[in-house]
């Protein structure tokens, strides 16, 4: 079997057909149409074996996660997902592995109406690159440079669960069976906040997804917007499993710095607080006010009593 | 230095700014606008060290080639290039290597008006994934399924030079210094046939770029279009260096099967022969009639005297 039939067999029909795709897998390029009045939003990300995941990871989970990473970037811009392309590098042709990968990818793709329109399959060290493509009405994207002093800082879901799972998996941290089961599911099967982002788009000033840790990612908003932030650590949303597994100060530090959460961090005017709670509680998604954008540059973490809190870890850096 | 500043330092300003790019490197997604009436054409390709190139290759040549691969796919659809995204996996942070890579990429990007709009930089085994994005007026793309019996089969430039360079580099085939110099330049610094493709678009029925060898790539047109082809081996366009380095039958076999040419293969109605020659000779690009599309399926190579010619090699297969 050669690379062409590999692509055709496993990927050509794994996702739904969209009407805006004139030509998908099987020619030199895919051909698609962007709706009038919309900008095209694109994001490309690579997951490398041994760096972003261990080679033993379930291939369905990897297919799911590779798509989540890109969908989460689209969510962070308030963009509606449309198409994906996949560049897959494999050390060998393992049909069972590929079938699992395709299943994990296609199930999530179908649930967000995403069509896989093109790809490239090569031999080499295991790595997955996906590019996601979405639409956003012209000028309406949520950017990193829109935060303003006085904005509330919100995060969806809970923070740190994936980081805790990584500590258990890579560093041997002991967790209860229940907690381990919960946080491993959060690590391996993260859910992108696509619908939540679309609901927040008319209300928010700025947004980012939390892939490198809240402190690092909120830091990008602060730098992009030329502002600072005060965050109250007692307000950080933590899952029961997470809370039960760590001392409180450890928990705050990990929630501030652990990557792979794929939750959203948004800033929005204080007067939208009730509307934000309303649109997200409709979707069953917690959305927690954790702090305030301030004029003075810098990222300030505080206890409720006003004392500074300085986390020890930093977001993951490749170099 | 972390991955963020890596992207910002080396790539953010390496290409020209386009007016249709609202937001480039530095947010969760890039935001762009496709012109009204146009389809978006996209192609993603990965080059892996040890598979597609040797680790010693000049990094400027690698940056050039990674972009050429995608530009050549756009050319094969008759699409006008616009934007690129880059997912770069590096074993270590080598500033001199990166500076060379960026220079090779950016010089070619500027010459085709391509802006690098986004990327991801990760640590891992050396690999380069690029996605190219271009525009084509709705319904006007050159596809693989448009060839019709009676069409002439044309190829741009010359065939097999890169394959000959690979034989010299990997298998120790001895070439004259002049021939080696010529074919290595063709292998390492291929030129995508973008302008030629745009000139051919109104005239051609089908097109593909020759990246896996003429026989394999023309085979995709034949399969996609449900037709066959007769090709006359004496008509295959060969460079002087190539011709001087091989016995005639070896030369034909390599010209039919060697990859990495990045020339175009197009089919077009016989009555457009003179117009095809005219539009390409204006650009100084040879365009050679090598055969005819026939109703009977299959790929038939013939000598001028009518005898069959069966090449021994096949296009490169990863698996």
TrEMBL record, chains A, B:
Keyword hit for ATP-binding: yes
Binding site for substrate: 52, 260, 316
Pfam families according to UniProt: AIRS, AIRS_C
Binding-site positions, Mg(2+) 1: 45, 120
Catalytic activity: thiamine phosphate + ATP = thiamine diphosphate + ADP
Miscellaneous notes: Reaction mechanism of ThiL seems to utilize a direct, inline transfer of the gamma-phosphate of ATP to TMP rather than a phosphorylated enzyme intermediate.
Protein name as it appears in the record: Thiamine-monophosphate kinase
Record organism: Nitrosococcus oceani C-27
